[in-house]
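Intended use. Records like the one below are meant for learning the mapping from a protein sequence to its folded structure. Do not use them to infer anything beyond what is encoded.
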Amino acid sequence: MEKENEESLIKIRSARAAIAEGFRLYTSNFRRIFRATWIHQLVFAVVSGVAEALLVAYYPLLVAALMLLWYVMYRFLLRRRLTMIATVKAPLQTYFRHAGLLIVVALVTFIACASLWLVTSVPAVILSIANIQAATGVLYGDPLGMPEYMLWLTMGVFTLTSLMQAYIYLSFFFPLRYAQGSVVAIELERESAIKQMQTNV
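Structure written out for the chain above:
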């Protein structure tokens, strides 16, 4: 199975094809991905949602710790759980030679994921603005502020939003992996052509 995945991954593709194949693989395997990752994604969503809700409710700041948690978690999921994405390795200079393809795929995929992220962020953004306005009002002498249940509502909304966004984040890696496979395929073909020329000489 892993060998088949690797062979299908290592194939010369355009940036458009890599993006299309990456998203197709993600959507067609979403049930399998969900079964393999839902516990980890739920833990991530709860931790992220509670931390963000507390930050918004009390201190409207962002922390780098959430980004570190995001990075570590997805590296774990891609290496250990998502076997439909094969591991393809190549020297770093290989990727530099094909930086254009990788940048185009990453940029277009980022724009698509960012659009979905913005749509799912709307409820959390509305609650964030409400909490910040209430905190500002308290500073200026408003005796009411936000009701007590608002913190729990904010935590719930942020957790649900984080869970949806966790799968949006995960989809970002699939087109990039196809682009990586395409780069490896191009290099293999180039090396084969060079060897053939040397043999003919």
